[in-house]
């Protein structure tokens, strides 16, 4: 049944609801250059995972902002899909940065996905169900790069520093946005979207012999160097 109320669960005015759509739903559009990049370099898993995140996050936040549901799925279902895609996306970033052989990386991708789906289905709204999978991936990344680094790997230091900077900003924004009713218009959550997608954009290029700017990736005719 569609809720035709004139406000959302936060009791916002129509103007506030519009602002919230821009801050939390439209802000996902910043993912598009990274999606184009991962498609062009044939990083299929990250491409489809990013598309899922873009769609689920937009639909969840759009429903949440205007107080209307369902839009294909209920808001809570879009929210859960958004959580799964977000967690898998961050775990895959650490998986990518480990620079394992293709077979190992593919195995980790499936293990991560299955683990996240199970833990989110069983403890969907427990913050530790988000933190623990990401923490495991981070620890694996640290161990791999500390004791078993890939020899001869060239790293773009500029994009690495920018990626880490945005990653830290994203984690801070996520923390302050956890209490959604205390986060006016979900401003902190919107910053989480912006910062994390900039982190992804830069970190997914640190091993590429040629990097691309945010604006360059909007050019669909751009030729991309293979990783």
UniProtKB/TrEMBL annotation:
It comes from the Eukaryota. InterPro entries: NGX6/PGAP6/MYMK. The chain crosses the membrane at residues 17-39, 46-63, 125-147, 159-178. It is found in: Cell membrane. Keywords: Cell membrane, Membrane, Transmembrane, Transmembrane helix. Belongs to the TMEM8 family. This is Uncharacterized protein. It comes from Paramecium sonneborni.
């Amino acid at each position: 049944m569609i809720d035709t109320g004139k406000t959302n669960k936060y009791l916002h005015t129509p103007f506030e609801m519009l602002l919230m759509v821009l801050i939390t739903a439209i802000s996902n559009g910043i993912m598009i250059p990274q999606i184009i990049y991962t498609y062009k370099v044939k990083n299929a898993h990250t491409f489809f995972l990013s598309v899922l995140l873009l769609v689920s996050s937009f639909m969840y936040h759009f429903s949440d902002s205007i107080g209307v549901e369902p839009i294909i799925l209920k808001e809570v279902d879009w929210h859960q899909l958004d959580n799964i895609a977000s967690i898998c996306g961050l775990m895959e970033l650490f998986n990518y940065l480990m620079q394992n052989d293709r077979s190992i990386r593919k195995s980790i991708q499936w293990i991560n996905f299955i683990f996240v789906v199970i833990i989110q289905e069983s403890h969907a709204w427990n913050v530790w169900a988000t933190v623990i999978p990401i923490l495991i991936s981070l620890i694996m990344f640290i161990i791999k790069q500390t004791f078993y680094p890939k020899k001869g790997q060239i790293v773009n230091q500029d994009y690495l520093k920018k990626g880490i900077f945005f990653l830290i900003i994203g984690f801070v924004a996520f923390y302050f946005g956890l209490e959604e009713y205390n986060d006016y218009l979900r401003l902190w959550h919107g910053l989480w979207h912006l910062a994390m997608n900039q982190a992804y954009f830069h970190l997914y290029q640190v091993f590429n012999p040629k990097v691309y700017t945010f604006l360059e990736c909007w050019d669909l005719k751009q030729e991309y160097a293979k990783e």
